[in-house]
Request: fold
Amino acid sequence: MKPGNIITADRDLTEIFQHLKTVAVVGLSPKPERDSFKVASYLQRQGFTIIPIRPGQKAILNAKAYASLDDVHQPVDIVDVFRSSDKVLAHAHEALRLRPKVFWMQLNIENLETAQLLTNAGIDVVMNRCIKIEHERLINRSAQ
Reply:
């Protein structure tokens, strides 16, 4: 499959999980009760490298935190976004420089303008899906 698609098929999601392992989590909260923390913690336990994106934090989940994607200077496979739908476009513009393989908008987050910008640049997009739920469903069924 050529890059730059809106991903919905299980086989494509499974391929993402099998081959991509570095995840920048935009909006990662340092609070363990927050969904972003629970999801990132789960991914970290599954062997993913987590890069926290959260202004004002030095580290989250024992990983150096960055104020924005613009501050990250290492390869990123997936940008996983925990921001409201009306705020993701700004992060998409930041992600264009990083050239991740996938820009993932969490459950209840959709932005078609963002999806078009990224897919036109050859970056796959997932919208309105929880990366943890999908990973558990497709890869780690025993975690449920």
Q: What stands out?
A: The mean pLDDT is 95. The longest strand covers residues 22-26. Strands lie at 22-26, 49-53, 59-60, 63-64, 78-81, 102-105, 124-126. Helices lie at 10-19, 35-45, 88-98, 112-120, 131-138.
